[in-house]
Design a protein that fits this description.
about 140 residues, alpha+beta, 2 domains, 7-stranded antiparallel β-sheet, about 35% helix
Length: about 140
């Protein structure tokens, strides 16, 4: 085999390997939504903000969601805790991270804000089941 053909095959092989490795990350970057657990390491590491990573796990069963709402205008990351309605540990955690409970909220939840004007945290319980949902919304128009 000619030397130039060997080099071309090597370059194509390396390019294909890099593409296969990074393709899931490229897909995640352009995804409109995702549903995952903490065991889905690649998605968990990519989508989950630090505030949700460090949040106390108030039940044994929980999962995460990501949504890109109205294009790139807003990202919403959420964690749902099943089998509980108690938000006291989450409230204490947010206070320790210097978040302040807001007097009004645009959802049927408790709103929390810190120094970042683009970030709002919503803590609520679902009325039909024992589930606590914590959403971190980033509004890029603010």
């Amino acid at each position: 085999m000619k030397k130039s053909l060997k080099i071309t095959i090597a370059i194509v092989t390396v390019f294909a390997a890099v593409l296969v490795y990074f393709l899931p990350m490229i897909k995640m970057n352009f995804a409109g939504s995702a549903h995952y657990t903490e065991q889905d390491r690649r998605e968990y590491d990519f989508y989950t903000p630090e505030i949700l990573r460090d949040m106390p796990r108030i039940s044994q069963r929980y999962d995460f969601n990501f949504a890109n709402i109205t294009g790139p205008a807003m990202h919403v990351n959420a964690v749902r805790f099943y089998g509980t309605r108690d938000t006291s540990k989450i409230d204490s955690y947010l206070i320790s991270k210097e978040y302040n409970k807001q007097e009004t909220c645009d959802l049927e939840a408790v709103c929390w804000k810190a120094s970042d004007p683009q970030e709002t945290i919503y803590v609520g319980t679902l009325t039909t089941e024992d589930t606590v949902q914590v959403q971190v919304a980033y509004d890029f128009y603010k």
